[in-house]
Amino acid sequence: MKEVFLRSRWLKDLEGSDLNQGIAITHFPAVVGRSSECEYQICHPLISRRHCAFDLRDGEICVQDLGSLNGTYLNGERIKGPRPIHDGDRLDLTFLPYAVCLPISPEGSVVQPSSVPEAPAEELRPHEVLVVDDNVDSAQTLAVLLEKWGHHVHVAHDGPEALQAARAHQPDTVFLDIRLARENGCHVAQQLRTTAGLDKAVFVGITGYDPDDTLECLEEGGFQQLLTKPVAAEVLQELLSHPV
Question: What is the pTM of this model?
Answer without folding.
Answer: 0.82
